[in-house]
Amino acid sequence: MKSLAELQAIRERAKANLDLRKENPNAARVLVGMATCGIAAGARPVLNAFTEEIAKRGLTDSVTVTQTGCIGICQYEPVVEIEVPGEEKVTYVKMTPEKAVKVVNDHLVNKNVVTEYTIGANTK
Amino acid sequence: MRELSLNVMDVAQNSVRAKADIVKITVIESDKDDMLSITIEDDGCGMTEEQVNQVIDPFFTTRTTRKVGLGIPLFKLSAEQTGGSFDIKSKLNEGTTTKASYVKSHVDMTPLGDINSTIEILIRCNPDIDFVFTHTTDKGSFTLDTRELKEVLGDVSLDTPDVLEWIKQYLEEQTQIILGGV
Questions:
Q1: Where are the domains of chain A?
Q2: Neighbours of B178 (CB within 10 A)
Q3: What is the bridge-based pairing of β-strands A80-83 and A28-33?
Q4: Is residue B182 predicted with pLDDT exceeding 60?
Q5: Are B121 and B128 in contact (CB under 8 A)?
Q6: What is the pTM of this model?
Q7: Which residue, A30, A53, A78, B66, has fewest beta-carbon neighbours within 10 Å?
Q8: Cβ–Cβ contact A3 with B under 8 A
Q9: Cβ–Cβ contact B109 with A under 8 A
Q10: B140-180 pLDDT, tens per residue?
Q11: pLDDT tens-digit profile of A12-39?
């Protein structure tokens, strides 16, 4: 059973690299659109895929995953924006958990934007 | 929405945007009484009586990025299509309470779905807001109160990966107990 004592242990461990996490100015941000349109289109499994793959890759200190609202392109949901400091923001559209894994590996790990999933490649 | 838990995630965003400090999400389900109810209560900025009447309308939204707001209408529909009821109460500067009640065995009942995932994501994405999640079935009840967790964690944030993993496992364990029976 999960106990509060266990949480206490997590606290002691987490305190050590607290400053590291808080003050990482180079942290990339993954913003998943989670308004009605995004949620209905399947944003939740996409967000979960991002957090799982980022944890698997050991990137939790350098990448944060968070939700954002509707940015007005509901027909392209699930929409995910990736902000890497010093680089132009990239908007991925019609995302799936499978695409999310590829974006983590190609974009966040290897620094290659997955052009075929971007909004530029998907607008008619 | 394929799952009611997705409606909850959607409607809880309204509380987040209303700058709530505490969001209470309560799910009560009973096979005995053939009912399920979901209550989302916040202490955010609230709405005027006029606004409350407007949010039921799909073509009302406070947002400027688009012209429709479907969150509340979809939640309301999900309840009413089962022969259940829907209620939204709000007071300016005090908060809003939204309650949807369902007839569980109705053919148009949407499954609750992965409510734990909804709670985990809400905490992950809004570590500064407190969430109180209570899930009750015929077999028991449990509550996750992030205020209690914060007391133990001190200045370690709720969105620390190990803490989120703890929350996830805690929710899983507790849910198994109240759904599976001991």
A1: 24-122
A2: 17
A3: antiparallel
A4: no
A5: no
A6: 0.89
A7: B66
A8: no
A9: no
A10: 999 999 999 999 998 888 988 889 999 999 999 999 999 98
A11: 888 876 665 565 778 899 999 999 999 9
CATH (one of 3.40.30.10, 3.40.50.720, 3.40.50.261, 3.40.50.970) for A24-122:
3.40.30.10
Q: At what angle do helices B115-125 and A43-56 cross, to 10 degrees?
A: 70
Q: Would the CB atoms of A2 and B169 count as touching at under 8 Å?
A: yes
Q: Quote the radius of gyration of chain A (alpha carbons, Å).
A: 16
Instruction: Note down the domain range covering B38.
Output: 4-180
pLDDT of residue A23: 59
Given an 8 Å threshold on Cβ–Cβ distance, is B65 in contact with A69? Answer: yes
Residue type, B12: A
CA distance A74 to A94: 10
Neighbours of B53 (CB within 10 A): 12
**ipTM confidence score:** 0.84
Contact B37, B101 (CB under 8 A): yes
Which CATH number does the domain housing residue B116 bear? 3.30.565.10
Q: Does residue A69 belong to the interface with chain B, where contact is any CB pair within 8 Å?
A: yes
Tell me the shortest Cα–Cα distance from A95 to chain B, in angstroms.
17
Residue in chain B nearest A33 by alpha carbon: B10
